[in-house]
Amino acid sequence: FADLVLETWDLQCERNGREHRTAEMGCQQLVVRRGQPFTITLHFSGRGYEEGVDKLAFNVETGPCPVETSGTRSHFAVTDFPEESGWSAVVQQQDGGSLSISLCSPPNARVGRYSLTLETSTGYQGTSCHIGDFILLFNAWHPEDTVFLRDEDERCEYVLSQQGLIYQGTRDYITSTPWNFGQFEDDILSICLKLLDTNPKFLRDQNRDCSRRNDPVYIGRVVSAMVNCNDEDWGVLAGRWDNHYEDGMSPMAWIGSVDILKRWKKFGCQPVKYGQCWVFAAVACTVMRCLGIPSRVVTNYNSAHDTNGNLVIDRYLNETGQEDRRSRDMIWNFHCWVESWMARPDLASGYDGWQALDPTPQEKSEGVFCCGPAPVRAIKEGDLQLKYDIPFIFAEVNADVVYWVVQHDGSQKKSTHSSVVGKNISTKSVGRDSREDITHTYKYPEGSEKEREVFAKAEHKKSSLREEDEGLHLKIKLSEGANNGCDFNVFAVINNNTDTDRVCRLMLCARTASYNGTVGPQCGMKDLLNVTLAPRAEKSVPLCVLYEKYGESLTQDNLIKVVALLTEYQTGDVVVAIRDVYIQNPEIKIRILGEPMQKRKLVAEISLVNPLAVPLNNCMFVVEGAGLTDGQRIKELEEPVEPKAEAKFRLDFVPHQAGLRKLMVDFESDKLTGVKGYRNVIIAPQPK
After folding, report:
1. Where in the cell is it found (predicted)?
2. Residue 289 backbone dihedrals phi, psi, to 5 degrees
3. Is 277 a catalytic residue?
4. φ and ψ at 308, to 5 degrees?
5. Nearest to 580 by CA among 71, 146, 86, 169
6. In what helix (H) or strand (E) does residue 261 lie, and over which residues does it extend?
7. 335 is known as an active-site residue
8. What's the pLDDT score for residue 434?
9. Which among 56, 219, 277, 672 could bridge 360 via Cys, Cβ 3.0 to 4.6 Å?
């Protein structure tokens, strides 16, 4: 027999991409999911393959030093039936000189970039030929993969959807901001693999790191550490919270992960400036979805940052309601992290499913700024000793807050009301733009027997709240929404739930604030020394907050913190109430003109009305949307936008992918920043 000569081959990137749901990554490279067969075609010249005469085998290798014992190299022969375990290659069909072969990886294979080599031998003669590279991802569709997710709609949302909503604002006024995850956009997959190859564990021991890349728990921990740069590693984002972002991008300006990841690569893996919690979480979500691990961004309102681990957040106020910065413990208006779906074979049973991962650098874990994966189930059950970092997240959703009022003689009075941590934990619903409340997955109903059991197990003595129907009760209310550029009223509502007259002092103070709890200058104040309350009576005291007072010091978080302090003369008791008011930005209007169809030009008309009494300078619109705009489109307006005038422009774009897409817009200017808007567009497929 003459030698078998391989002439050409076809990795069938397009067909395999469709079957493996990776087609949107482009057909320039073969991207497949583990445990699922993919087909390649070999063309031989001269004569075709003859079973029994010719031997065919493949070699797959990943990482810099592939070895079989680490699972980073495998050698396997072409057979008639698939192997039970390990890699396999099976002849599918033969047509003259062309041969179709189905290859399949085991469902626990290492993910990453592989090289594929074919070895042919006839008798004693053998040749080997490198036929290309392919990338192997986790497979949420395969029942034996540790990231298997049963529901198809959930797989579409948490693995395939390139866009989403992230919840921000305050517990009383939840807002959503659009985000372009863009995990299938050009070059993002190779950037995610580069991120794995620049992580310190890889640089320390490349073989060991690559051999552990079959485990989503390991990958999640690496990604959580690599999204921030607090360990002098090559992390993606630098965090900053002090409202000085001039030497980078303000965290509020981003509308997607693609821009951030591309900048990281372009500037030689230098950290991109700047991120805050939702940016860290969204970038981690992109990387995890890109690698095939189902993931979502979640927001916890009134999130505790408990630095000393005692599950109590102590805050100190002086008699005018100003915070004394004596405690590193903070309450964040909201805090975002990621949940990723995976089995936990490293733990006892019962902890599979959603795992919390927090890439925002807050505290070190095993010497590194990363957090998780922590089984959400373990957080709910108070199983603090399990891996990883459960006490920290348990505190974020369960800590107690105690307000101490420091009198002028230095003595401290404990407020009788403890504000509430871990509220309205939120994520985007599957397949819809509405909010799903997942608080019940983190904690049992408040006051329930189960909650008491969990706190006992976690050694958490929850302070018993004074019943609201005794003594004095204080609340801060808002009559209607607060709009940027306008004055608004807040009300301190006091209830006397006793049978006697009460005489009190009421302090009301408003200050601009950031979402991590820090406050700026005062922008409204009232001090009433003589408030008399009849038995069982209610009194409402207004405070008008003027735009001319808050406008200059409002941060890009658009928050105003209102503190009310009620001191009863007779008993000396102090009651504290705090409310964060969200200042609403104007709406960005987006009109789509034309028939939305793949590969056909569309026009978007984008506009916003300046709500302020002053002109807006240096106005800029940034537009992006996976599958729609081909990267970011930036429009700088030449003229200032006068008060009550409209900033407007038209954008031409050609959608290159069909299906439901989001066109996302960010507006920046000198006085109004981080304004977001989006529009859902259904793109019809190109007619065949």
Report:
1. Cell membrane; Chromosome; Cytoplasm, Cytosol; Mitochondrion
2. -60, -40
3. yes
4. -100, 5
5. 169
6. helix 257-266
7. yes
8. 96
9. 277
pTM passes above 0.85: yes
Work out whether strand 88-95 and strand 73-79 pair parallel, antiparallel, or are unpaired. parallel
pLDDT of residue 654: 94
Separation between Cα atoms, residue 332 and residue 353, nearest integer Å: 27
Instruction: From the candidates 20, 335, 417, 460, give the one annotated as an active-site residue.
Output: 335
- Contact indicator for 112, 63 with CB cutoff of 8 Å: yes
pLDDT digit string (tens) for 403-434?
A: 888 887 878 888 755 558 889 999 999 999 99
Q: What DSSP character marks residue 12?
A: -
Rounded to an integer, what distance in angstroms lies between the CA atom of residue 77 and that of residue 248?
A: 54
Answer for the pair 642, 592: CB distance below 8 angstroms, yes or no: no
Ramachandran bin of 501, using left for φ above 0, alpha for ψ from -120 to 50, beta for the remaining angles? beta
Task: Give the active site residue among 104, 210, 269, 277.
Answer: 277
Contact 329, 305 (CB under 8 A): yes
Cis peptide before 274 (omega within 30 of 0): yes
Token pair of 635, please? 């429009």
> Looking up tokens 């105690």, which residue turns up?
402
Q: Which residues of the chain have pLDDT under 70?
A: 82-83, 231-233, 307-308, 325-326, 365, 367, 416-419, 461-470
Q: Is 211 helix (H, G, I), strand (E, B) or coil?
A: helix
Question: CB of 666 within 8 A of CB of 255?
Answer: yes
How far is C-alpha 546 from the chain's CA centre?
35
Identify any residues that bridge with 474 across adjacent strands, giving them in sequence order: 494
Annotated binding site for Ca(2+): 398, 400, 446, 451
3-state class (DSSP) for residue 167: strand
Cα–Cα distance measured from residue 196 to residue 199, given in angstroms and rounded to the nearest whole number: 5
- Whole-angstrom distance, CA of residue 609 vs CA of residue 586: 7
Residue of 306, 358, 389, 666 with catalytic role: 358
Cα 687 to the center of its chain, rounded Å: 36
Q: Are 579 and 572 in contact (CB under 8 A)?
A: no
Rounded to whole angstroms, the Cα distance separating 329 from 304 reads 8
DSSP sequence for 263-297: HHHHTTTPPEEEE-HHHHHHHHHHHHHHHT--EEE
Tokens of 544: 């008008």
Binding residues: 398, 400, 446, 451
Tell me whether strands 295-305 and 174-180 are parallel, antiparallel or unpaired: unpaired
Q: How far apart are the C-alpha atoms of 526 and 531, rounded to whole Å?
A: 12
Whether the bond between 373 and the residue before it is cis, its omega within 30 degrees of 0, is: yes
Q: For the chain, how many helices (H) and strands (E)? A: 13, 38
Whether the CB-CB separation of 16 and 30 falls below 8 Å is answered with: yes
| 233 belongs to the catalytic site | no
What does the chain come to in residues? 688
Is 550:561 a contact under the CB 8 Å cutoff? no
Dihedrals phi, psi of 378, to nearest 5 degrees: -70, -30
Distance (Å) of CA 31 to CA 117, 128, 426, 446, 560:
16, 23, 32, 47, 48
Tokens standing for 306? Answer: 């408990």
Q: Give the pLDDT score at 85.
A: 81
For residues 33 and 138, the answer to whether their CB atoms sit within 8 Å is: yes
Q: Find out whether the peptide bond into 403 is cis, omega within 30 degrees of 0.
A: no
Residues 6+ apart with CB under 8 A from 552: none
* Residue 509, beta-bridge partner list: 525, 563
Residue ranges of alpha helices (H) inside 149-250 are 152-155, 188-197, 200-204, 206-211, 216-226
Residue keyed to tokens 């482009």: 26
Residue pair 180/624 in contact by the 8 Å Cβ criterion? yes
